[in-house]
Specification:
Layout (H helix, E strand, L loop, with lengths): L25 H16 L5 E8 L2 E12 L4 E2 L6 E2 L5 H13 L20 E6 L4 E5 L6 H6 L13 H8 L12 H10 L15 H13 L3 H13 L20 E3 L6 E3 L1 H4 L16 E2 L1 H12 L3 E2 L2 E2 L3 H7 L10 H4 L12 E3 L4 E3 L14 E4 L5 E5 L4 E6 L10 H12 L3
Antiparallel strand pairs: 1-2, 1-16, 2-3, 4-9, 5-6, 7-8, 10-11, 12-13, 13-14, 14-15, 15-16
C-alpha cells in the first residue's frame, strides 16, 4: 500500500508538519540550526540550506548565511545549488528506467552500444610515460558502471598512474573545453583501466559513460531524456545544466577554504562555469538544482519510485538498486582503491547508483541499515532512510566536500532528534 505524500512546493520549500507529531523532538531539531550556524559565524561556510522529512512531510526546513557573501545576498528557499555528484543518482534512475523496459540487461557488455570499449586494457606497471598494460579479463558491463566497479577513474584523484594519464589527456576536475560526451568516451575507452572490471571499487567517470549509454539506447540526448522522462514528470522545474537570465541571481557562489585561515573564499574560476551551456553533458556531475526539486526526487525514491501519481520505477526495482551489489558482499573498505569518494568506506556497500549502509557501527553514526545516499563535490548531500521513512538534504557550496564533517554531523543531529 502506497503512502500519501504531503503537498510539495515548486520552487521553495518550508515545513509542512509538526515534527513532534511525527516522532521528532522539535527542540532537538533546533540543534541542527544552532550547530551549522557556527560554520557561517566563523566564516567557514558562506551559507547553507537543510531539509528533513518524515513520512512524506517536511519537519524541518532552514537556511542560514549568504548565497553570495560578498554581496550580502542571503540564502533563500529557492536558491540554486551546484549539486555535482548528486547528479549520479538521477542518471542511475534514468538507466534503470530503460532497464525496466527490457532494452538491456545489467550483465550486458557496454561495447554492444559503445564499441570503443570493446577491447579495454588494464594498467599493470610502469610510469605515465611508459605504462605497461594487459588485456582485461572481463569486459565492462552495465552493472559495473552503476556500481563504480568498471576500472575507470577520475583524473583529479591524483592517486595512480592511470589518474595521471587522464590528466595528461586534459581530464582533471573538468573535461577539456568544447569536448562533448561521445568524444570523452572515446578517450576514456583507449586509456587503461585501473583494475579488471568487477574486482575492486573506484570512484570514476563511470556514471558519465552511463549517461552516454542512456543516449545511445534511448535515442535521445541526455538532457532531453532527463527533461522528458524525469524532471518534468516529477515537477523538478528548477533543475538544469546551466543558469542564465534572471536566475543567475538565485545561484549560490562557489567557495573553497582559504589556505591560511580556513575562511570560505570565492572560487570564481570554477563557479562561473555554471553560467554557460556545457559542451559535455555530465551524468556524473553536471546538474544544478534546488532543495525543493531534490526533495521531490528523494521522496520519489522513498515512496518506491512514485510521486504524486507519477511512477518512474517499480518498488522492487528501487529496493534492488539500494542493496549492496559489490562482489561477494564486500564493503567499500575492502574493495576501494583508496581514492576520493563522497562517502566513508567501512561498513558501506554500494548499490546501483547509491552508497548503502550495511553496518553503521564503523562510521560511528546511528544510521539505519539499508539507508542509501550520496553527496556532491561542493559539500551537498542527501540520504533516504526507508526504515524510519526519513529523508535529509544538505546544500552548501564549499569545495572539496572533505573539508569539514558536515554530513556525519547532520546525521548525528537528525537521528538524535528522532525519539519515536
Amino acid at each position: 500500500m502506497e503512502r500519501s505524500v504531503a503537498p510539495l512546493p515548486a520552487t521553495a520549500i518550508e515545513r509542512t508538519a509538526d515534527p513532534d507529531r511525527l516522532g521528532f523532538d522539535s527542540n532537538r531539531l533546533e540543534r541542527i540550526d544552532r550547530h551549522f550556524a557556527r560554520y557561517v559565524d566563523s566564516g567557514k561556510l558562506a551559507g547553507w540550506q537543510i531539509v528533513v522529512t518524515r513520512r512524506g512531510a517536511v519537519v524541518h526546513a532552514s537556511t542560514c548565511g549568504y548565497r553570495k557573501r560578498e554581496e550580502q545576498i542571503p540564502v533563500e528557499p529557492d536558491t540554486l545549488w551546484r549539486i555535482y555528484s548528486m547528479t549520479k543518482p538521477i542518471t542511475s534512475v534514468a538507466a534503470m528506467m530503460l532497464w525496466e523496459t527490457g532494452l538491456f540487461e545489467l550483465t550486458d557488455e557496454i561495447s554492444r552500444w559503445l564499441p570503443e570499449f570493446a577491447d579495454v586494457r588494464v594498467y599493470d606497471k610502469g610510469s605515465a610515460l611508459r605504462p605497461y598494460t594487459v588485456p582485461a579479463t572481463e569486459p565492462i558491463r552495465v552493472w559495473h558502471l552503476l556500481t563504480h566497479t568498471s576500472g575507470l577513474t577520475y583524473g583529479f584523484m591524483n592517486n595512480s598512474v592511470v589518474d595521471r594519464l587522464y590528466r595528461d589527456e586534459g581530464y582533471d576536475l573538468y573535461p577539456p573545453e568544447n569536448v562533448n560526451l561521445p568524444d570523452a568516451c572515446e578517450v576514456w575507452a583507449r586509456l587503461p583501466l585501473l583494475f579488471d572490471p568487477g574486482t575492486a571499487w573506484g570512484y570514476s567517470v563511470a556514471t558519465d559513460v552511463l549517461g552516454r549509454l542512456i543516449e545511445v539506447v534511448s535515442g535521445f540526448s541526455l538532457d532531453t531524456f532527463f527533461d522528458e522522462r524525469i524532471l518534468e514528470p516529477l515537477g523538478m522545474t528548477d533543475t538544469r545544466w546551466w543558469v542564465a537570465g534572471d536566475d543567475v541571481e538565485r545561484l549560490a557562489g562557489l567557495y573553497s577554504p582559504h589556505p591560511i585561515d580556513g575562511h570560505a573564499t570565492h572560487a570564481d574560476d570554477l563557479g562561473r562555469l555554471a553560467l554557460r551551456k556545457p559542451a559535455l553533458l555530465s551524468g556524473g556531475s553536471g546538474l544544478i538544482s534546488t532543495a525543493a526539486d531534490y526533495h521531490r526526487f528523494s521522496q520519489m525514491l522513498l515512496r518506491g519510485g512514485e510521486l504524486a501519481g507519477v511512477r518512474l520505477l517499480s518498488p522492487r526495482t528501487v529496493r534492488f538498486m539500494t542493496r549492496n551489489h559489490l562482489p561477494h558482499g564486500h564493503d567499500l573498505g575492502e574493495l576501494s582503491t583508496g581514492g576520493f569518494a563522497e562517502t566513508t568506506l567501512d561498513g558501506m556497500g554500494f548499490g546501483l547508483g547509491f552508497a548503502v549502509v550495511e553496518d553503521p557501527i564503523p562510521s560511528r553514526v546511528p544510521s539505519s541499515v539499508g539507508e542509501y545516499y550520496w553527496g556532491g563535490m561542493a559539500s551537498t548531500a542527501f540520504w533516504v532512510d526507508p526504515v524510519e521513512e526519513l529523508t535529509a538534504l544538505l546544500f552548501t557550496q564549499l569545495i572539496p566536500s572533505s573539508t569539514y564533517p558536515l554530513r556525519s554531523q547532520l546525521r548525528q543531529l537528525v537521528y538524535s532528534a528522532l525519539i519515536e
